[in-house]
């Protein structure tokens, strides 16, 4: 069975965001120069049609009006990665968790490194809020979109300033 992929590019306060849909479900949100960003040729044809709801919710999020996304997602990864990504979606807006706390929540207290690796492979940034995961002691560690973007997203969610 072949998957039908489409993509579009949206402007954001963090630079262009590439959204990818697979058979109508959002399967990717990538920032410019993001680590682990797939090759452009895997994104499919450019088409805005499947992204109206995602665009609307992202605009509301960046305007400070939306705290939780309600989009249909297709998270392609290993079973462990999907468990980590599901747990990321449970971190409330404006809050953070450490890699160790996530490992505990997953019932694998010694797996904080594996949690970090799965976090770094999150295919749907912002919406699946991997930016809300920090190192032990509150340090900002690794973010596929860059530490500056991570800091800005966390500051934004904590009310340190809106972008518009």
Describe this entry's structure for a reader.
The chain is an alpha/beta fold and 164 residues long. The chain has helices at 52-62, 79-88, 99-105, 112-120, 147-157; strands at residues 5-10, 17-22, 25-31, 45-46, 97-98, 133-134. It is built from five helices and six strands; from the N terminus they run ββββααβααβα. The strands form two sheets. The protein has a four-stranded mixed sheet with strand order 3-2-1-4, with no helix packed on it. β2 and β3 (25-31) form a beta hairpin. α3 crosses α4 (112-120). It is globular and about 40 Å long.
List the helices and strands and how they pair.
Blueprint: E1 5-10, E2 17-22, E3 25-31, E4 45-46, H1 52-62, H2 79-88, E5 97-98, H3 99-105, H4 112-120, E6 133-134, H5 147-157
Parallel strand pairs: 1-4, 5-6
Antiparallel strand pairs: 1-2, 2-3
Briefly say what this structure is.
The protein is of the alpha/beta class and 164 residues long. 29% of the residues lie in helices and 15% in strands.
């Amino acid at each position: 069975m072949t998957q039908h992929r489409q993509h579009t590019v949206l402007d954001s306060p963090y630079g262009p965001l590439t959204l990818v849909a697979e058979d109508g479900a959002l399967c990717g949100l990538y920032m410019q120069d993001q680590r682990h960003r797939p090759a452009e040729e895997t994104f499919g044809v450019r088409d805005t049609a499947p992204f109206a709801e995602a665009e609307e919710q992202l605009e509301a999020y960046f305007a400070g009006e939306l705290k939780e996304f309600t989009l249909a997602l297709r998270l392609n990864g290993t079973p462990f990665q999907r468990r980590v990504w599901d747990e990321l979606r449970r971190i409330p807006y404006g809050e953070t968790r450490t890699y160790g706390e996530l490992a505990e929540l997953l019932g694998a207290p010694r797996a904080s490194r594996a949690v970090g690796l799965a976090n770094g492979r999150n295919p749907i940034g912002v919406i699946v809020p991997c930016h809300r995961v920090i190192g032990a002691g509150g340090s900002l560690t690794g973010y596929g979109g860059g530490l500056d973007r991570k800091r800005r997203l966390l500051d934004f969610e904590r009310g340190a300033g809106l972008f518009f």
